[in-house]
């Protein structure tokens, strides 16, 4: 899997959205639960975002290189 700039941006955006949601729902009062939920979310979200954006980048490059 290749890491692209778009994948990093998408992953950071999704992690930021998730963190904001956790702050609004007041999960920060239980730090071990928060860290566990963050770990699970990051292990699922970051690789899938990077994979999706990798495919999007490759497809865009293929289409732009066609005559």
What is the gist of this entry?
About 80% of the residues lie in helices and about 0% in strands. The chain has two helices and no strands.
Helices, strands, pairings?
Layout (H helix, E strand, L loop, with lengths): L4 H20 L6 H35 L2
Count of spatially separate domains: 1
Q: What is the helix/strand order?
A: HH
Radius of gyration: 16 Å
Count the helices. How many?
A: 2
The overall strand count is 0
| Fraction of residues in β-strands | under 5%
Residue-averaged pLDDT, rounded?
77
Profile the largest sheet.
none
Shape: elongated
Structural class: mainly alpha
Q: What are the segments in which pLDDT stays under 50 over at least 5 consecutive residues?
A: none
Separation of the first and last Cα atoms: 27 Å
Helix content: over 70%
**Oligomeric state of the chains present here:** single chain
Q: What does this 3D model show about the protein?
A:
This protein is an all-alpha fold and 67 residues long. The chain has one domain (5-65). It is 82% helix and 0% strand. It has two helices and no strands. It has helices at residues 5-24, 31-65. The longest helix is centred in the C-terminal third of the chain and has 35 residues, at 31-65. The mean pLDDT is 77.
Q: Notable features of this structure?
A:
82% helix; 0% strand; mainly alpha
């Amino acid at each position: 899997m290749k890491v692209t700039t778009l994948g990093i941006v998408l992953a950071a955006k999704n992690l930021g959205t998730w963190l904001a949601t956790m702050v609004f729902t007041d999960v920060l009062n239980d730090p071990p639960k928060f860290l566990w939920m963050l770990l699970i979310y990051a292990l699922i979200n970051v690789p899938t975002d990077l994979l999706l954006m990798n495919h999007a980048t490759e497809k865009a490059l293929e289409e732009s290189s066609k005559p």
